[in-house]
Structure formats: C-alpha cells, structure tokens
From TrEMBL:
InterPro entries linked to this entry: ComplexI_NDUFA9_subunit, NAD(P)-bd_dom, NAD(P)-bd_dom_sf
PANTHER family noted in UniProt: NADH DEHYDROGENASE [UBIQUINONE] 1 ALPHA SUBCOMPLEX SUBUNIT 9, MITOCHONDRIAL (PTHR12126:SF11), NADH-UBIQUINONE OXIDOREDUCTASE 39 KDA SUBUNIT-RELATED (PTHR12126)
Source species: Promicromonospora umidemergens
Membrane-crossing segments per the record: none
Protein name as it appears in the record: NAD(P)H-binding protein
Taxonomy, superkingdom: Bacteria
Positions of the NAD(P)-binding domain: 4-166
Pfam families the UniProt entry points to: NAD_binding_10
Length: 252
C-alpha cells in the first residue's frame, strides 16, 4: 500500500473486517466467500491486486471476484501465485491435506487466465516469514522433524511487493517470469540455521513424506533457481528477526 501511494495511486482495500479509511486509502468491507460487497468494492477501479489465498476455495473466491470485476468494466487483474503451482501434482487426499494451498493457487490461476479480463500473474517462491513460521513450529517439539529432501527458496516479501506494484502500474502481461529468493535450501538447513540463531538445541529427525506432491517438491518443483533474482538472504532475514547472525546454510 505505501508503494502504491508513493506512486501517486489512490488505493481501495477489500477486507472482511471493517477498517477506518484515510486520505488516499479507502477501506471497504466485502467477502469473497459469499460475494457480499464485492461488486461495490471493485466498481470504478482500474487495477485489482488479488492477494488473497487459503487452503480451500480459492478458485471459487477468484471466480466471484472475476464476475464482479467483469460486471464493473474491464480492470487489469494482477494475481500473486506460487512457484510450482503448475508442477506440483495435488491429486490424492494425502497430498491435498498437506499441499492444498498449492492446488488452490493453481485453480485460481486458471480462473484468472480464462476470465476474459486483462491479466498478469506472478509466481513467487516461499516468503521468509512463512518459512520462519514453519521452522519455529517444528523447533517447539523435543525432536524437530524435517521434511527430507524438500527444496525451498525463501524470498523477501518486500521484494515481491515491489514487483507486484511494478506489474500493477504496467500493461497486462499474462504469466510473467517467476520471482525467487537468492538461494535454494533444504528444510533441514533452514531449521538448523534457525535453531542456531535462536540459541536452541534440538535433534533433527528427517521424515520422508509419501505422495506425488512431496516427490515433486524434493525434485525442486517449488523452486526457480534460474530466477533467483531476490537479494535478501535467509541468513540476513534471521539476523533481523531473531537477532543473531549465523553462518550461511548450505544452499545452491
């Protein structure tokens, strides 16, 4: 939002809970799950930044947004997705329980592509903050489990925001090149560096998850090493958020 305001843009924010508006930033209450208020929220806008995401129902929520946007005109729809949305097969119940978020992102991508609206989709790798939440949860256990072989390429959320604003201010471009962080790691290395930064000691137990989605992630389907254009490393992020510098984890 500050980036859009600094670019001279008026901003309208859609959320399910009321917030107070201020000059240049209008807050409207609407719900993509039910459609309530969505039509009014998108009326009169030139560009929609679709940033919502969850483990269930993203395709239908995106369809609700698209229908309202189409009725309101032909705004540029900019969508944030995840790297690997088209490469991680989420077919079984086991896969959906663990990786439903990826499947929902792909479902929403297809709705955007087929919407008839001018559109742009950016796929990004995993945000530093999401990875931090994951390793913090794993490290709370007496023995920290690690998903064996999973490759993760953490990226700074602010860098993704910069790119989204750039795309929102540009012409519709369809599916644009991925945005990945500067290095690819295995989960074990991310967990080890977090434990070192936090001053904790935990044995790490590698667990090999079954299923086609897990196999794809072990093969790097969720990474974009040829698009390692992010600058802030995982270790730099940890130093700021946890308060201790650590030696770089082994990465690619």
């Amino acid at each position: 939002m500050p980036l859009l305001r600094s670019a001279g843009q008026d901003v309208r924010v859609l959320s399910r809970t009321p917030h107070e508006s201020r000059p240049g930033v209008e807050h409207v209450t609407a719900d993509l799950s039910t459609g309530a208020g969505v039509g009014a929220a998108v009326t009169g806008v030139d560009t929609i930044l679709h940033l919502a995401g969850s483990n269930k129902g993203d395709g239908e929520k995106t369809r609700t947004l698209v229908e309202a946007a189409s009725a309101a005109g032909s705004p540029h729809l900019v969508y944030i997705s995840v790297v690997g949305a088209d490469r991680v097969p989420v077919t079984s119940g086991v896969d959906r329980a663990a990786f439903g978020y990826i499947a929902e992102k792909r479902a929403a991508e297809l709705v955007v592509e087929r919407s008839g609206l001018p559109w742009t989709t950016l796929r990004a790798t995993q945000f530093h903050d999401l990875v931090l939440t994951l390793v913090q949860a794993l490290s709370k256990l007496p023995v920290a489990p690690s998903f064996s072989g999973y490759r993760i390429q953490p990226v700074e959320a602010a860098e993704v925001a910069d790119r989204l604003v750039e795309l929102a201010l540009a012409d519709p471009a369809g599916l644009v090149p991925d945005l990945g962080g500067p290095r690819v790691y295995e989960v074990r290395d991310l967990l080890r560096t977090y434990l070192a930064a936090a001053g904790r000691r935990r044995p790490i137990l590698s667990i090999r998850q079954p299923g086609a989605a897990a196999r794809a992630l072990r093969e790097g389907a969720g990474t974009a090493p040829n698009r390692a254009v992010g600058h802030r490393t995982w270790e730099e992020f940890l130093a700021d958020r946890v308060g201790a510098r650590v030696a770089p984890a082994s990465g690619r």
